[in-house]
Design brief:
Blueprint (H helix, E strand, L loop, with lengths): L1 E5 L2 E5 L6 E4 L4 E3 H20 L3 H4 L1 H4 L5 E5 L6 E6 L7 E13 L16 H11 L9 E11 L9 H11 L9
Antiparallel strand pairs: 1-2, 2-8, 3-4, 3-6, 5-7, 6-7, 7-8
Organism: Microcystis aeruginosa PCC 7806SL
Protein name: KGK domain protein
Length: 180
């Protein structure tokens, strides 16, 4: 787990695909499967930019200009859920936020400035992709899905173990004797 801070709370980057999420509708899902669902949604979103529709019809003006797409799957405040981290005994209650990032290869910038629809354009496009080591257009992108978990009522700084010992000493001062 990767800890960070957000709005005076701890933010956990969920990296373990074997952890479990449970949503308000009682749906229980492995983080791996959840990440796959999010990635499918993200690929669908990216498809608007890279499918043989919008972008291909406008290749000459867009290729080389789009190099990264960033995406937030859930509302900015996150979606309520519980998280069970592998190896822990208790569920953590909080919100999960999902982010997608797609970075495109600069291979598209190397294409000659020709108009789509020209008979040689698609062949030249495929030759340039293969020359750069790609077999398919989809290989020109790298996708990263990030899952953030923000626990409810989590303090900014974890309580020091020394503070716990001090509290025990205050509560049990008559039972504690360090001089023996």
């Amino acid at each position: 787990m990767n800890f960070d801070t957000f709005n005076n709370s701890q933010k956990i980057i969920i990296e373990d695909d074997d952890s479990v999420l449970m949503f308000e509708d009682e749906e229980v899902i492995l983080v791996r499967k959840f990440r796959e669902k999010i990635q499918a949604d993200f690929l669908n979103y990216i498809g608007k930019y890279t499918s043989f529709g919008r972008l291909t019809g406008d290749r000459s003006s867009l290729f080389g200009q789009i190099n990264k797409i960033e995406w937030v799957h859930y509302p900015s405040e996150g979606k309520h859920c519980k998280l069970l981290i592998r190896g822990e005994k208790d569920w953590r209650t909080g919100k999960v936020k999902t982010y997608g990032e797609c970075t495109f290869s600069n291979v598209l910038e190397k294409l000659p400035n020709k108009t789509p629809g020209h008979p040689d354009y698609d062949d030249e496009f495929l030759r340039e992709l293969q020359k750069q080591g790609f077999e398919h257009f989809n290989e020109t992108r790298q996708i990263k899905i990030t899952l953030e978990f923000i626990p409810e009522n989590s303090p900014l700084e974890p309580e020091s173990p020394l503070e716990e010992i001090r509290q025990m000493l205050r509560e049990n001062s008559e039972k504690t004797n360090f001089n023996s």
